[in-house]
Amino acid sequence: MCVFFQDISFFVFAYLHGDAIAQTTMYFSDNQGYRFQKYFHEGQAQFLYSDYPLNHSLGLPFNYSGLLDIISAPGQKGVLIFWFKKNLLISKNAELLQGDFENKIYNIDMNSKLELAALMIPRPSTSPVPLVIVSNPHSLGLQAVIYENSHTYDGNIEYKLNISLRQQQHYGRADPSFTSSIERPTMSTVTVDIANKEISCVDLKPLTALISIGCDLEKKIVIRNEISACNKGILDPVTLQNNYSYVIEKEAYSFDFQTEGSTEDLVVPYPYEKLGCPLLVYYNTPWKPVVELWRDGSFEEVIQAEYVLLEVNGLFTYTYSLTARTALCSSQPQNWTSIIKERGDIGPLNWDRENYVSCRDPNNHVPLKWPDVPYQILGGPTDNKVTFDQRNGFYIFLISIVDPYYSYCHLETIFSVYVYGAFPLPMIPPEITIILLMLAILLSVWLAYMIPKVLRTEWGHRVQGLWASLGRTCVSHAGAAHALKRPRIVSK
């Protein structure tokens, strides 16, 4: 049974709490609750409106006889109306606790936060004491601020409570031994209550929401494509859409990440519907993609976290500008070859936040045996970039965010690049060309030294005489030919 006081007097009204509204029985006491009897009313009644401006007047009176029925309108709690002879008796609980987050599920991804708000209306002449509790403080931290927001029509103060939730590790106020592992998703609830609320018939329940600290499924990554091969007229989008395919030379690809190449050329259909026009990259310029984070169709930020690339068709005609040494690795960094070895012959080929280990992690004790191998991780603390070999053509990359402290989601996508500006490789290897050039230079130097020396000998004088004789013969023949062509002058 729930008991409430209509006023400071001997009259007490009570009803059974929990029954269906239509079946609830009212009880009445005129001796401060020492003795109750069923409440029976006979006379007239009037409706009382609760919304402004109708609450300033009463409805038309009507006859009423029998036990009182309790009518509860949606959203109206704790309001009972009685027309008792010459008095209108109203029981009204003025306390209110309301929030749109009640009984809902929310998600907080890594490096994200959640803002909630609740409204509080205390009893007159009192100030609420908000109570905000999280069930898993090892993972979820909070900040709460309360302030006067407005006033109700009857003069009560409306307070607003702003609640900011984020991972406990990012607030920086908890001891590391208190917080849970940030690398694994967790769950928690947040509950809002009024600590100094009074006992009343109205069940002023706390507000509770479920918080999932994990992947935000609305997130995705997008590769910025401001300059494409179609924009610059190098490729025709109409041609790309018409079942276009391209050829990868057998010397340029291998599916086991080896550099020996394959036995035959590979014909690859270009999926224009999925990739659109490829990015345009000059072969001789170090490059890395601009990776954007989008959530629910809106741009969030440019991602600075660590990520890796994989050419899906096995092209290996590119490398990286940094090595393990120049990337300042203290242990041997991972690469696609080591990922394949760890995977073995079964399972998908994944390099992501679940199996990534930084070469600068103090807990990584793999010795740095090969400091000059290419460093295959982009983003993060380094300015590592991709450098392409002297080859024009398409590259289709899978990009995967591997930083375990950026998001709980497996953020990855596929995009295409078209490399241009590389001249065809010469037919003669450059080593042979250099050797031939050096031999020609040495021969010229030798001839410049030997010819004057030979000309001073008897044989040299004979050669000079022979050349002189040939010269005079050529001159005489040229003079005769010139005389024959000269016109004669005839005098008359």
Total number of strands: 27
The overall average pLDDT, rounded, is 80
Whole-number total of structural domains: 3
Q: Given the helix and strand composition, which structural class is it?
A: alpha+beta
Q: What is the straight-line distance between the termini?
A: 160 Å
What labels would you give this structure?
CATSPERD/E_C; four-stranded antiparallel β-sheet; cell membrane; Immunoglobulin-like; Cation channel sperm-associated auxiliary subunit delta; 492 residues; elongated; disordered N terminus; 3 domains; alpha+beta; transmembrane helix; differentiation
Give a structural overview.
- The chain is of the alpha+beta class and 492 residues long.
- The chain starts with a strand and ends in a 7-residue tail after the last helix.
- It has three domains: 91 residues, no CATH class; 118 residues, Immunoglobulin-like (Sandwich); 202 residues, no CATH class.
- Helices cover 15% and strands 32% of the residues.
- The protein has six helices and 27 strands.
